[in-house]
Amino acid sequence: MPEHMPIYIGDNAVEEFIKYCQKTDHQQFLLITDENTYRVLGKSVHEAIKEKGWDVQSVVLQPEGLHADSVTISRVLAVYDGQPRIFVAVGSGTVTDTTRFTSHRSQNSFISFPTAASVDAYTSVNSAMTIGELKGSIYCHAPVAIFTNIPTIVESPKWLTASGFGDLTSKFTSSSDWKITHIIWGSKYDPDIYEKALGAAKQAAAVADGIITHEPKSMAAMMQGQFESGFSMADFGNSAPASGGEHHIAHVWEMMFHWAKREGLYHGNAVGVATIIEAEWYERLRKLSKKDADDLLFHAKVPSRSEQERTIRVELPEIAEELIESNPIYIQLSDPQVLARVKKNILDNWDEIQAIAANVPPANQFREWLKKLGGPTTTAELDLSPKQTQTAIDHGHYLRERFSINNIRKLFGW
Prior knowledge:
The chain has 21 helices and 8 strands. The protein is an alpha/beta fold.
């Protein structure tokens, strides 16, 4: 496995950051925060840098309506003076993704100060960005160091923790989708990274009771699990180990909010609800015998390429052309030879597929965890209409090259 960046998890993150900068001779900085994260931690980082007499520029973003998108990118780059600087992200998902993207595109490194256990992408090389109308995972780079101040994490809002817990425990389904994609579709796969991603979800589940009460040791364990999940993506080179069908459904919901210029849908909350949906499909899969699967696949019907393209243009017009151009797996299944090969792969590997599915907890377990954390468990709680809910479920599988449980359940006619 690649060597990872230094990570500090403890009560003295700012002091350790200063020591690191002295050791590595960093003296020019661009600090990126929003007003909330500046208040809880960014100000301390800012003042510590200035006390050393180092050169620091700062961008303090308005938190209302803040997204990792082209608007926020332009706000950062409007302040940046083009000089070599190490960027410093003090925040959670949006601030970190924006910093990752702008630092990478300006050929600078960055350091991360997480302020909440709300996302699993602190150690990732990818930024979840919305460019134009399409949300996607864009390759950038990982931070060169991470400094986690546990008192800040413990004091963060519980709804942010619920969002992070939903994102982290989704690795039960995403890692399963990834391994099944390898078996059925032949996509690239790494067993050690698979265990890392699955292990991150297990680690969160093991300390769920402590996370619910924001107990410091449990919150530290959750942060470590999030870092491990990010490492699984960084080590593999893309988001496949930690972003399966549940993320693709959630991304459609997030884009719907973006298209309507609505606020209030948090990534981890959307992922948590979509994970419940996927877990229900995995439960249904576990009840099937190989003969049951054979019978269902015998009757499987995949719409023609032209029919699918027409439906995508009607249901997701904002991103239809990008999706069609990517030639998604399900469109490829309209070729009878491809479909026949996939059916054979499913049946030939049925026992292994069932063993993978056994790693996914029951849907009610996810519901119980999220309810205790105060997180949503239904799309109604996400303020999504039945139509929006179904559109994402029916078309999320077009977003990435993944043979997720969503593809399988469509073949089974569920």
